[in-house]
Design goal:
Length: 239
């Protein structure tokens, strides 16, 4: 009976603690409200440019991701179709397939086929030259993303420096090191730095993904170009 009473008391204590914890959790501020409060506390002078860096940087990242996904294709299937077209219908049929196919690889093949009557050496030069053009298009807007990655923490650190200056000015005016005096400037300093670093981290992750995507497409383009030249040599395309 005593054990039962002790167990009941312990169980009641656990229930009470759980209820108190649930009440505390329910009273917590939602994440979006907390972010809003921190933004206001950090001050619009530096927080607004940092948020703009995040918005514009994400916009460029999303644009690049969509473009690169559309530019990604099955190069092996395309090479197979081109080889079959050359074997059955000649260069013009292969060019038609390249025109109908989306992506930089098909565009490169079309430029090479368009110069087939000038010899394999000219075809190779055309493929290499147009591949460089396509690589430049793949890397469009990467400089802007890199700019926002560098700019966000810089703005955060600038807010930190200015916050420290304000804090020391308040100390000088008050003539004391009271925490209440320096709390405002220090809070601005810490909040702007944290938000600037968070924005830079987010954009850096997307930037690395975009760069890795571009590297994969470029490697695919190079491999496909070698296989393309092998097909032309195999069928002795001259005219």
């Amino acid at each position: 009976m005593k054990k039962f009473v002790r167990f009941s008391a312990a169980f009641a204590a656990i229930i009470s603690a759980t209820g108190a914890f649930a009440q505390d959790v329910a009273q917590e501020v939602p994440l979006h409200q907390e972010l809003k409060n921190q933004f206001i506390d950090g001050g619009p002078t530096f927080m607004t440019p940092i948020v703009l860096c995040l918005v514009l940087g994400l916009a460029f990242c999303i644009e690049r991701i969509i473009y690169l996904n559309l530019a990604t294709g099955n190069t092996k299937k395309l090479l197979s179709r081109i080889e079959e077209a050359i074997a059955q219908g000649g260069v013009e049929e292969a060019k038609a397939i390249c025109r109908e196919t989306r992506g930089p690889v098909a565009s490169i093949f079309y430029q090479g086929l368009d110069r087939h009557d000038e010899g394999l050496e000219m075809v190779e030069k055309s493929v290499v030259s147009y591949a460089s053009v396509q690589m430049g298009q793949l890397e469009t807007n990467l400089t802007w993303i890199a700019l926002f990655i560098a700019l966000a923490p810089m703005l955060g650190f600038l807010g930190t420096v200015i916050g420290m200056v304000v804090a020391f000015n308040d100390i000088e005016k008050a003539g004391t090191m009271s925490p209440t005096v320096v709390a405002g400037g220090m809070k601005v300093a810490l909040i702007t730095t944290v938000f600037g670093l968070i924005v830079a981290i987010i954009l850096q992750i997307f930037y690395n993904y975009v760069v890795s995507k571009i590297d994969g497409i470029v490697n695919s383009m190079e491999d496909a170009s070698i296989s393309f030249m092998d097909i032309l040599i195999k069928y002795n395309i001259k005219k």
